[in-house]
Amino acid sequence: MKTKAPYLKLKVAIGIVGTLAIIGGVGFGLYYAVVKEELKTVVAKEQLLLSVQKTNQECPVMIDDETRLEGVMYHSEQHELEHRYTMVNMLADGYDAASVQEGVEEAIISNIKSDQSLAFAKANKVTFTY
Prior knowledge:
The chain has helices at 4-58, 97-114, 119-123, and strands spanning 61-62, 67-75, 80-87, 127-129.
């Protein structure tokens, strides 16, 4: 009888150690996944900030005959790129705001879709505002 007790204690101890190892492994795996995703987000934000700085050094810049890009801002909390434009040949009281909004929106969406310099922002699910 006495010979079985140490064996049983050893078996229980191995079971406890094995269970703790599994729990620790799962915990570490979850921790690693969260840290990895957070690091990826930090790198994306830093890359976006560098892109904004580079773009703003070139601003203001004419996009076409009617539109000037004044600058870009990155709002990290909202993960949002804000582009500020000026319609250079329009007076504030001399246009139909709804039709201009529609035309400008179509042009900006088309530009966002085709502009390869925005590929990184699109891949990182950035919201674009103007």
